[in-house]
């Protein structure tokens, strides 16, 4: 929340929050990649467990998802 204010605000207004899904539900265990040094290095963050969901990931819960679906996860991306 402190480092990703825009993303947190848009998630806070989302259907995902309303359904009880938190950030780690889509992006993995934040404790594994939360250090500043790791977060500033995308490859290191991914290696440490950061998940950047793609359509295939979304289809686990949303079988009809397609590329147009991704921006709806965070309201700030849909604008």
Overall description:
With 79 residues, the chain is an all-alpha fold. The chain has one domain. It is globular, with a radius of gyration of 13 Å. The model has no long low-confidence stretch (mean pLDDT 87).
Cα Rg = 13 Å
For the sheet with most strands, the description reads:
none
Helix content: 40-55%
The ordered H/E elements are HHHHHHH
Strand content is: under 5%
- Count of beta strands: 0
Span between N and C termini?
21 Å
Number of helices: 7
What does the average pLDDT come to? 87
Estimated structural class:
mainly alpha
Any idea what the shape is? globular
The tally of domains stands at 1
Uncertain runs are none
What's a quick, concise take on this entry?
With 79 residues, the chain is mostly helical. Helix content is 44%, strand content 0%. It is globular.
Q: Layout of SSEs?
A:
Blueprint: H1 5-12, H2 15-18, H3 23-27, H4 36-39, H5 42-47, H6 55-58, H7 75-78
Attribute tags:
single chain, 79 residues, mainly alpha, 44% helix, 0% strand
């Amino acid at each position: 929340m402190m480092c990703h204010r825009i993303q947190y605000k848009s998630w806070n207004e989302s259907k995902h929050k309303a359904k009880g899904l938190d950030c780690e539900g889509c992006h993995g265990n934040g404790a594994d990649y939360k250090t500043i040094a790791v977060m500033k290095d995308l490859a290191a963050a991914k290696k440490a467990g950061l998940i950047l969901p793609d359509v295939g990931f979304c289809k686990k819960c949303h079988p009809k998802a397609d590329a147009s679906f991704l921006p709806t996860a965070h309201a700030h991306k849909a604008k």
